[in-house]
Structures are given as C-alpha cells and as structure tokens.
Amino acid sequence: MSSIAITGLTTARDIDSISRPVSTFNATSVTKDWENARHQHRKAQLIYSVRGILNCEIDDGVWIVPPQCAIWIPGNLPHSARGAGETECYCLFVEPDAAPDLPKICCTISVSPLLRELLMKVAGMPELYPLGGAEDRLIAVLLDELVAAPVELLHLPMPRDLRLRRLTETMLADPTDKTSKADWATRIGLSERSMSRLLLQEVGMGFGRWRRQLHVILALQRLTKGESVQTVALELGYENASGFITMFRKAVGKPPARYLSDRMSGAELAPVPGIMLPD
Length: 279
Fold this sequence. Notes:
Layout: E1 2-3, E2 22-30, E3 35-39, E4 44-58, E5 61-65, E6 69-73, E7 79-94, E8 107-110, H1 113-123, H2 134-148, E9 151-152, E10 155-157, H3 162-173, H4 181-187, H5 192-203, H6 207-224, H7 229-235, H8 241-252, H9 256-265
Parallel strand pairs: 1-2
Antiparallel strand pairs: 2-7, 3-7, 4-5, 4-6, 4-7, 5-10, 6-8, 8-9
Helix pairs in contact: 1-2, 7-8
C-alpha cells in the first residue's frame, strides 16, 4: 500500500506504469474541501469514501459519492474530483482487462461490508505484491465483488446542447431559482415542448426530475458538512423542512438524517433506489 502526498487525489507517481492488475492508495489525510483538476489515466479508478462526500465530474454529468460508497471511473476518461468537508478515502487503480464485466461507464456503487474489508486488506499489500499467490487470489475476489456491486443512482446527467447547458449551469449556480419550465424555455430560446423533448434526449429525464436530482446532490454535500436540515431546505428554496424531507425520502428511500447516520456508521449498506419520481 502506498500513501499519497496529495492535494486532492493526485500523485507525482505514474499510476499507469505500476505492473500489477490492481494498485491501491490510501488517502486518509486529505484536507477539507480539496479539488483535483481535470485529468485522465489509462487505468480505471475506484475511489471509496470512508468519510466525507466526494464528487466526480465528466463532460456528461456529475456523480456524488456519500460515505460507504465508491465512484468507478473508466480508464482514459477525462474527469475532475473534489471532496466536501473532511474526507477519508481509498483509491484503487485497475487495469482495463483485469476482469471481465467491469463497468464501462462512470457510476457510483454501493460498497458491501465484504467489499469494504477486501479494499482495506488490499490497501495493506505492497505495491509490487507477488504474482501467482495469495495476493492474486485476494485481488480476484475483490474484482468479483466489484463487478457484482449494485449501482446507486446518485448521478446528475449534464446535457451537451449549449442551450440546455446554460440552463443546467444556471440552476447549479442558483438552485433556489423557482423559474417555471415554460419561463426557462423562453429564456434559452426554445418552446416548452422542444425543451422537454431535448432534455429527455440528452439526459434521459425531464425538467422536474433533473431539478430534484440536483437538490438531493446539493443537499448531501451540505448536510455532510454539518448544516442542519432546516438550513439546507431553506437554501434550496423549500418553504419549510417538511417539504424537503418528503422529497428526499421519496428520492433515496430514507429521510436525510437517517440516510446520513446509516452511511456514516456503515450500519446500512444496502443500495438506495435513486430518484425515480415522475416529472
């Protein structure tokens, strides 16, 4: 295992040159609110969050990684990453052909107790661990568990169309904006019907669902930093905490306090259903 001297999750070492199917790095001393600029590497990457919220951005979307979850980033995919609050995480770098059926797209996955223990065990192995022995067998089990890990739908897709991009970036900057869908369409030079059709084509969801997905992601970032549910609800434009809690419970299956408590303690690691609300 190597410890990273880091700002964010970068290292001066050439990850791609390590001649093993899997390499791990322990990033337990990351400072508050770090950011790692856009970069890429040949190997795929798994970032497991033990403590704190991680965010990963690529051209097509934003992924959030709550505690006891991980983000999978395929190889050669340009991405940036940042941490919200005090973070503790583990990084796993995987050769693209290390196992069949590894995810082909960026995704947030739920980390089971077994996968968590495997990650911790592998993190303690030497960088150039012996091939053909117990270490290899342990790596094989870890990869099997990684392939089987359920995906959590904590993903905010981003459109490529410049008009829609202007819409989504404006909403990201001011999530309390209660402008109606019709007014948003006029603002970006589209009819309401055309905007709805284009959103479905580009991000796979309608305006209302995208905005709720945005609110859950922003809420998790702020709640993890210690802000109260009441404060977060008001900052996101809800009239009271009750309406926000109802939205959050429908989105992820639990009220925010219970969701975060379970994630922090690792007591409940079953996958959450993601946001499946109608538009």
